[in-house]
Automatic annotation (TrEMBL):
The keyword Lyase applies. Its EC number is 4.2.1.17. CDD domains: crotonase-like (cd06558). The lineage of its organism: Bacteria, Bacillati, Actinomycetota, Actinomycetes, Acidothermales. GO terms for biological process: fatty acid beta-oxidation. Pfam families: ECH_1. This is enoyl-CoA hydratase. One of its GO terms (molecular function) is 3-hydroxyacyl-CoA dehydratase activity. Keywords: Lipid metabolism, Lyase. It comes from Acidothermus cellulolyticus (strain ATCC 43068 / DSM 8971 / 11B). Belongs to the enoyl-CoA hydratase/isomerase family. It catalyses: a (3S)-3-hydroxyacyl-CoA = a (2E)-enoyl-CoA + H2O; a 4-saturated-(3S)-3-hydroxyacyl-CoA = a (3E)-enoyl-CoA + H2O.
Amino acid sequence: MTSTHRAAQPAGDGVRVERPGPHVVQVILDRPQALNALSTELAIQIAGILAGIAGEESTRAVVITSSSPRAFCVGADLKERADFTDAQLLQQRPVIRDLFAAVRQLPMPSIAGVAGYALGGGCELALSCDVIVADESAVFGLPEVGVGLVPGGGGTQLLPRRIGLGRACDLLFTGRRIDAGEAFRLGLVDRLVPVGHAEQAALDLAEAVAANSPVAVRAAKRAVHAAFGVELPTGLEIEDAAWQTAATSADRREGIAAFVEKRKPRWTTS
């Protein structure tokens, strides 16, 4: 499936928003001269955009990509931070936390389309998404310990959940970079595609998600995240609540009718 981009929606310096389809939103990091380093201003912009998208009932999937093939995002803007006092660094902290929370709190599925460097906060930005699509140029790493820091965008929590404790500790404690192939083998990357195809593959995946019932997909996302790490009986209760939400919706009735009539569903709830 090929997506036709609509005109970009102004979103401020460093980030653009495009709507390649009626139910898919693409957030494009567009600070190529800094390899999309996350300055305070850029973090505020992205968080604000995502908060707005979260309230859109018509949006069924969100894709985060970069305008540059060189880098998805290289993490925090260390040039900006170079002269920060401890107090200034701590003042910036809520802004950075809000950025990653805005990704994780999207009610619809989120997909990272990664090409080039995804380091530090850039790696965490991808990890904050539900699915990571990467091309073979992608390079991942959490190098914070090498500059006297700890990953602070969810890296110490999200990475072990994806690849296991020991493998995560390897990457977290050494700060080493891994190529796309190793990332895919470890489970950090969900879909690996040829160089230059990450964006389109992510958009195609988003369109496939958007073709399904928005009520069911959102309920499934809530169930997956709410139940992750809890005991199985609790998780099954969370799943049952999600099932009931979908089962009693107009989407379920439309889905069954479309199946019987051998046509595509016409979802009206979103």
